[in-house]
Amino acid sequence: MSEPATALTGCLAPDAGLDPIDKSGLEGLIAKGKENPQAIKTLKCKTVAEGRFRHANYIRNLEPYIVDEPPALLGDDTAPNPSEASLAALGSCVAVGLHANAVARGITVQSLELELEGDLNITAVWGTGDVSAKPVGFTDVRIKVDMKADCPQEEIDALVNHVIQWSPVFNTFSRPVNMIAETV
After folding, report:
1. What pLDDT, on the 0 to 100 scale, is given for residue 19?
2. Which of the residues 27, 53, 84, 88 could staple to 75 if both were Cys, CB 3.0 to 4.6 A apart?
3. Is 102 exposed, middle or buried (0-12, 13-18, 19+ CB in 10 A)?
4. Residue 175 burial by CB count (10 A; 0-12/13-18/19+): exposed, middle or buried?
5. Segment 25-54, tens digit of pLDDT
6. Chain Cα centroid distance, residue 180
C-alpha cells in the first residue's frame, strides 16, 4: 500500500473547503533545503506608526499586520501588542513545524492547538520608567502542545522535541541573535 500524498487535519479536511498540505510539495522543499543547506533568506518588514502606539507592519504584498498596545499600556487595544505578537509568531512557527513533520512522517493529525504564556517585567516602560538592573523581555515562555494524531503519544512527544530544535522562531527566542539598529 502506498503512502498517502497528504495528511489531513480537522481544520484542513476537504469538508472544510480547504486543500490539505501537499506532501509532494513538502518533499520538494525538503530536497531544495538539502541541495543547499547554507542558503539564507532575508525577510523584510516595514513598520509605520499610525498614532499613539498603533503600528502597521507591511510584509510582502499582504494587508498590513497591525500591532497595538492595550489600554493599560496607553494603546487603543486594536490588535496584539508586540510581545503578544511574538508569542503568536512562536506558536505559529512551532505549529507549522509540527504539521510539516507529521505530513513528512505520514502521521495524520486530527487536531493541533498550542497555548503559549510568557513572563516579562514591564516596569521599565520601554526605558522611560524604572531602568534599574533587571532582565528586559521574556524571562520564561511556556508552550503547551495539544496534538491528536494517529500515532502513540511517545511519537508526538518526540515530534515536539524535534520541531523545537529546528523551529526558526523558537531558536530566535532561545539564543542570542546579532542585532543592528541604525538611524537613516
Report:
1. 72
2. 53
3. buried
4. exposed
5. 888 888 888 888 888 888 889 889 898 898
6. 22
Specify the length of the chain in residues. 184
Phi-psi region of 21 (alpha: psi -120 to 50; beta: other; left: phi over 0): beta
Q: How many CB atoms lie within 10 A of CB 79?
A: 19
Residues (pLDDT < 70) of the chain are 1-18
> What one-letter code names the amino acid at 14?
P
Let me know if domain 81-176 sits in CATH 3.30.300.20: yes
Buried b (16+ CB within 10 A) or exposed e, 19-31: ebbebeebeeeee
**Model pTM score:** 0.82
Dihedral sign for Cα 179, 44, 142, 107, please.
Answer: negative
Compute φ and ψ for 45, nearest 5 degrees.
Answer: -150, 135
